[in-house]
Amino acid sequence: MIRLTQNMEGDTGHVEIIQSSDINEPFGVGNHLNRKSSRKPDVHQKCGCTPKVLCFTAAVIILVFIFGYLIGYLVHRNKDLAPTCAPSAFRYEDIPHETGAAPLMDWDDVKKLLAQKLTTSSMDAVLGSSNHRAGSPGDEDLGNKVLKKFKEYGMKTWTDEHFVKVQDPPASGYNRIVFKNGPEERPTGFLSYSASGTARGAVLYARYGEEKELKQLKDMNIDMNGRVMLVRAGRISFAEKVANAAKVNASAVLIYPDPADYSIGESSPLFGHVHMGSGDPYTPGFPSFNHTQFPPVQSSGLPNILAQTITAGMGLNILRQLGGRAQPDGWESINRLGDESDVITVEVNNVLTEKRINNVFGVIKGFVDADRYVVIGAQRDAWGPGFAASTVGTSVLVELARSISDMVENDGFKPRRSIVFASWSAGEYGSVGATEWLEGYLSSLSMKAFTYINLDGIVTGQNGFKVAASPLLHSLVQNALKEVNYDKDKSLLSQFGKNNWESTILEPLRMDSAAYPFLAFSGIPSVAFRFHSGSSDYPYFGTTLDTQQNLNSITASQVPQLAVRAGQFAGHIALRLVHDHLLQMDLKKYNQLIRSHVVQINARVKNVQRLQPQLLPKALTVQWLIMASGSYSRASSALAADIQNSDLEDIEMCRVINDRIMTVERNFLSPYVSPRDSPFRHILLGSGPHTLKALTSHLDSLKTANPDANAELFRNQFARATWTIQTCANSLAGDIWSLDNEI
């Protein structure tokens, strides 16, 4: 028999070869005792021992040996019965199904049970309300319904109360716009967290307000200083549109739903927020609990310019009257960009109010590592009916809780780790409820929550399927796509990702997703997904037209069926993470992402040194960054080797390995930036000057001698990003004497 064991004092293991005859064959044991007996008479005679003492001694030796043999036999038998950990944390397809004894259930049986529990009939009884804005009586009533359901399923429940500041439209006044000498318009839609006041300037059409489109306008030598930007909704968030306009010194932004993108009529109002961040912007980095004595402070993501939504009719009316230069090629419009005579007045009078919100939780506790958990969450508030925005996700959340609770209670399923179900409030204001929870318990959550699964907006169509996830979860996502059926004959993967699933299904995680702060702020691997209609976004988000009828019209009345598939996909990921001994996270996926950034930075550094040698001297080298990248690669490979050479039948050993895996995402958060100034601190997937993407952009600016570029600042950011990667590698390596630090 070959037994793999690990030296607990370090990372190196050894292989102990024990022949079966050494354990089970009595002949060898008898001979061994006989040989000892044949040598003892002379010794005993010399010592003067009596025959009575010799007999007693021999009997004791035989009894001790037999007792030890029985213990060894029982231990060996128990290990043969115990389920083993997966041999590798990195190649998902190599992981065998666990078929050991209780408490674990075979993975195929777990999948079948979930498929049996989640049905379209159960999804028909959806949880919704016609009016459930954050902090409203409808929101509170819906939260109580979710809480009651969790209690009915036998789950431990609790709530988390916060007092948050949000902007609402003026109760007694109004927001308004006046274009040229035309009539005053009073839009009923609004953008929370806009600056307040009045702005007057010439209109400039900027299409979707993306950075590349503003660069096109700049290349045309158009002065954007003080202009009022007219932009279409879609492609990027409202907050990103306003932030981009603020960078070019615009005075205000008007956002309208163009009929080419939104089939909502010419008079439907739009609602949203423009905080370039998440959570309560008046308590950045800390929770909005009642009576907290923090000094007045604001998030750096709050805009300092006005922002207002207008209807499609208002936007088209302005667009038709614009003069000035023709739009750039590819903008697909015959209208003009606007000139200095196209003056408009914008007045925003939003009111800052405090609201009490409640997050609702239920937990199914694990049977081995109960203090480690996956979180499944969905927002329950909405601007209007919010059927796609919140109702479907909340219904799937409750149905998953019911199904898995039933599996545990009645079918013998025993998850190793816990599953937390969360119903968030104030999601429409920028994932406020979820972010405040993260801020309140960050030190605990970052150590114990190993994945977040987001259920917001999971059904917005039926023609496509998209997933946004941490690279650590890509292999797990791929496996779920293979195993979850779209219909009787096809899996999700064969239906939507036949050729290259990464290019057809994967997409970047958007900042307005509740999964984003979990990943980029807290360092918790996260996943969001959705059924969608194709190339265009769901047109009813942020409107009062997000109804069951309109969602049925887009999905051909397949909402229950799509919700079941979405629930099975989310449930598959969650159950796999709490079923297996090792967390199925592919550490090597980050190797590719880091190397890609290193290649880009290296090429740009050389270009700047060639074209602008006075900015970056030859002494500056990318070698440190290359070494840090290599350290991470070797650390991830070393962990795979440790797993192969360890006694993975040991529960504590599995826990130690899982804890090392859990540090990866968290250690990609830059420790050198403030959560107030740059809340999304992830250097690879976050947002801000500390990211590797920002370093690349900074080098592009240095190459063209842009006056905004700062070589000294770049060198500081470069050094900090390098050491953040090295720190992650050090943590992944495990023991301090196992570090691979060439820097």
Automatic annotation (TrEMBL):
Q: Where in the cell is it found?
A: Cell membrane; Melanosome
GO annotations of cellular component type: external side of plasma membrane; melanosome
Q: Give me any GO biological process, just one.
A: transferrin transport
Domain PA intervals? 202-265
Please give the subunit comment from the record: Homodimer; disulfide-linked.
Which keywords does UniProt give here?
Answer: Cell membrane, Endocytosis, Glycoprotein, Lipoprotein, Membrane, Palmitate, Receptor, Transmembrane, Transmembrane helix
Q: Which Gene3D superfamilies match?
A: 3.50.30.30, Transferrin receptor-like, dimerisation domain, Zn peptidases
- Output the PTM entry: Stearoylated.
Q: Which gene encodes it?
A: LOC120434440
Limits of the Peptidase M28 domain: 359-559
Q: Does the keyword Transcription apply?
A: no
Instruction: Give the protein name, as stated in the record.
Output: Transferrin receptor protein 1
> How would you describe this protein's topology in the membrane?
Single-pass type II membrane protein
Q: What does this protein do?
A: Cellular uptake of iron occurs via receptor-mediated endocytosis of ligand-occupied transferrin receptor into specialized endosomes. Endosomal acidification leads to iron release. The apotransferrin-receptor complex is then recycled to the cell surface with a return to neutral pH and the concomitant loss of affinity of apotransferrin for its receptor. Transferrin receptor is necessary for development of erythrocytes and the nervous system. Acts as a lipid sensor that regulates mitochondrial fusion by regulating activation of the JNK pathway.
Family matches, as Pfam families: PA, Peptidase_M28, TFR_dimer
